[in-house]
Design a protein that fits this description.
It is built from 15 helices and 10 strands. The structure holds ligand LG6FSS7D. It comes from Cricetulus griseus.
């Protein structure tokens, strides 16, 4: 839900009442978001090199680039609420550098060495994504876009990276399939938007097999590192479904339509090396050294100048953003109808009753 003007004004008043100084970095962030929310993108000349305070403020504001006013307003409200005493006591906790943050039992978020690490933590269910997990990830990405970290990294606990959408999302909804399909389309659209709009480098550390939306989303990541044990599988037709997470656009663009068709229509499962050959994976590592090599590298990347990385990502992503949002909207509308189709309902019932396994 977007923050209203009233929420924004309440947040401004809350800042004045803060008992603890939030520190210079947070104050700069608040200033930048306030300016962006009220005046839009930075439009004043850069102060001189000796005007240190105003130069720091200008740089913070300027680093927000073309962030829309409404998003800046929302981020301001979120940031203030993360500083208020009530939310300090909440499960989300306060964000900052080198802090550990326990998000929930199924999504573990830590912030360390300039990296926000988002670990899917439902290993007994192969990290399948519940409705609650989608919502938590949306919030986590929103927070990570304004915290002190330089990059954000997704990975999975246990032997799987993620087995995709939890198929029981559709069978356990109180209002039945129709209600689940409506809810699913809204959540999915917002979920994918939060990846399209994420402003910092986003990296996937694919520790094991990935299925469905866990694979398609990779087309929206900036780098994908995979263990040689990982596989990549999108069994949409087997499930009577259709592609999501902008993969109907990113996959043909990345690997050509013939290879994209094998994955998205025929459900061909790729090994990590095949996925690398198709451009879906940046690099494959032997499983025995995967974690050590990848995290060493990521810690080094997280030390690079963060503003430079954001600006470079913005240049790359801005060419595509409008298109990606349009594709996402269309895919969600299509999927909503698919979820109510006989083909899909039969496939999900088969999975749930274990008559067939993919
Ligand atoms: C609202 C937004 C919607 C966005 C839409 C996205 C589309 C997709 O993501 S489509 C892809 C959906 N995923 C699947 O079709 C995978 C289904 N799972 C399997 O095929 C298999 O479980 C597996 C190949 C992933 C693993 O097989 P394995 O034999 O090694 O282990 P299992 O005994 O099957 O699994 C252990 C445990 O985990 C449960 N589980 C695994 N994946 C899912 C899932 N996607 N949804 C729900 N539950 C899942 C599985 O049922 C087992 O549970 P029990 O131990 O309780 O039986």
């Amino acid at each position: 839900m977007r923050a209203s003007q009233q929420d924004f004004e309440n947040a401004m008043n809350q800042v004045k009442l803060l008992k603890q100084d939030p520190g210079n970095q947070v104050k700069l962030k608040l200033y930048a978001l306030y300016k962006q929310a009220t005046d839009g993108p930075c439009n004043v000349p850069k102060p001189g090199v000796f005007d240190l305070v105003n130069k720091a403020k200008w740089e913070a504001w300027n680093s927000l680039g073309n962030l829309p006013k409404e998003t800046a307003r929302q981020n301001y409200v979120d940031l203030v609420s993360s500083l208020s005493p009530s939310s300090e006591a909440s499960s989300q906790g306060k964000r900052g550098a080198d802090e550990k943050v326990q998000e929930s039992k199924d999504i573990v978020v830590t912030s360390e060495d300039g990296i926000t690490k988002i670990m899917l933590n439902r290993p007994a269910k192969k990290n399948a994504l519940t409705f609650e997990m989608y919502k938590e990830i949306i919030l986590t990405l929103k927070n990570a876009s304004t915290d002190n970290s330089a990059i954000a990294v997704f990975t999975g606990a246990g032997d799987y990276y993620c087995s995709g959408n939890d198929l029981t999302n559709f069978t356990s909804a109180a209002g039945g399939m129709e209600e689940a399909a409506n809810q699913g389309a809204v959540v999915l659209r917002e979920f994918v938007n939060s990846f399209i709009d994420f402003p910092k480098p986003l990296v996937a550390v694919v520790n094991g097999p990935a299925v469905g939306i866990a694979v398609t989303l990779l087309g929206l990541f900036d780098a994908v590192y995979a263990s040689d044990k990982a596989t990549f599988h999108t069994p949409f037709s087997h499930l009577g479904q259709s592609p999501e997470a902008c993969s109907s656009y990113t996959f043909p663009k990345m690997m050509g339509s013939a290879k994209a068709t094998e994955m998205l229509l025929f459900g061909k499962k790729l090994t990590a090396r095949e996925a690398w050959a198709q451009g879906l994976v940046s690099e494959v590592f032997p499983d025995s050294t995967f974690e050590k090599e990848v995290w060493t590298r990521l810690r080094a990347y997280a030390k690079l100048p963060p503003n430079s990385m954001r600006i470079s990502k913005e240049l790359i992503r801005n060419n595509e953003k409008e298109k990606l949002h349009a594709v996402n909207a269309e895919e969600c509308t299509t999927l909503k109808a698919r979820w109510l189709s006989e083909e899909c309902i039969n496939a999900i019932m088969n999975f749930v009753s274990r008559k067939a396994k993919l």
